[in-house]
Amino acid sequence: MAETRVLLTGASGFIAKHIAFALLGGGYLVRGTVRSRDKGEALRRSLASAGADVARLEIAVADLLCDDGWDAAAEGCGLVCHAASPLPLRQPREKFALTPAAKGGALRVVAAAARAGATRLVLTSSVAAMSYGHGRARGDAPFGEDDWSDVTSKSISPYAVSKTEAEAAARDAASKAGLDMVAINPAVVLGPLLDDEFGASMRLVRMMMRGKMPAVPDVRFGVVDVRDVAAAHVGALTAEGAAGRRFALSAGSLSLMEMGQAIAAAVPECRGKVPRLRLPDLVVRLAALVVPDLRAVVGELGRGKGFDTDPARRILGFAPAEAARAVEAAAVSLMQRGLAG
């Protein structure tokens, strides 16, 4: 393992940085792809500051929307973690707007990995590829690896569509290429930052800390710590029995009100800023008629989705910290870095 090189795509992303940190700590060689050399140098500084052995880190430039660079990036890599995928801070209006980059990028990575002779590809997917568009008739059964989101649903978000389409396409392409593929499907990923860059999930916590969400809809989300997600990726690279499987990762569900309470417990300065009121469902439904970002929320009102994490626990050794701890770690990290104000 000490000389095994892992290709990690989208290495400057929130989850991917933690995967890189875990891989380097596990003795792997890591080749991380980024969209520019500047992002690569920033990644190297962030990982070094966190204590990683960046002498084992290489940087490669490649873009999900372009063919150039992927064969060179994959050359000599026996294992691949494909973590790159678009997750904008605001959802576009067009349902399939994010799909070309997500799906096309996944297919480029699968093809390059197969040509390079990689033995396994671990893809960072999401529970968004499992649990959306099913409607209330499905009941309360937990979502798991046999479930796929319905991209034809009117309530599904462009992000969920892109994750579903990308995972399905990568799975089919990997099978045809004879490449073992494992999908990691985490719920909302929170936890400590390794630098000052953060994405949509952490922005939610930041908005609560800044008092931007005094009233919230009655929705619940599965939550999982980014460090547990990274550990699952590393485990999936070599775990027996993982090939061809999809692993849901969640430490439990929290309402937005409960997330606010966890923030207040971890950062007392924010007690007067976190959500204090729950919006009536009717208000949310009416607002969704004019605010596109709320349309995906309507179908989740009053629901608490569960996820079957037993396969991840048995095969990948997934043993997550409590969901509230991930929220607390995120809040503390934002405060310590001066990003909560």
Rounded to the nearest angstrom, the radius of gyration is 19 Å
Mean pLDDT over the full residue set: 92
Number of structural domains: 1
CATH architecture name: 3-Layer(aba) Sandwich
Find the CATH superfamily: NAD(P)-binding Rossmann-like Domain
Gross geometry: globular
Q: Characterize the main sheet.
A: 7 strands, parallel
Number of strands: 12
Residues in helix, %: 25-40%
At the first level of CATH, the class is Alpha Beta
Number of helices: 12
Question: Which fold name fills CATH's third level, the topology?
Answer: Rossmann fold
Task: Characterise the protein shown here.
This protein is of the alpha/beta class and 341 residues long. It has a single domain, classed as NAD(P)-binding Rossmann-like Domain (Rossmann fold). 39% of the residues lie in helices and 15% in strands. It has 12 helices and 12 strands. The strands form 3 sheets. A 7-stranded parallel sheet has the order 3-2-1-4-5-6-10, sandwiched between helices. Strand 1 (5-9), helix 1 (14-25) and strand 2 (29-34) form a beta-alpha-beta unit. Helix 6 packs across helix 12. The chain crosses the membrane at residues 6-30. Belongs to the NAD(P)-dependent epimerase/dehydratase family. Dihydroflavonol-4-reductase subfamily. Residues 6-247 form the NAD-dependent epimerase/dehydratase domain. Keywords: Membrane, Oxidoreductase, Transmembrane, Transmembrane helix.
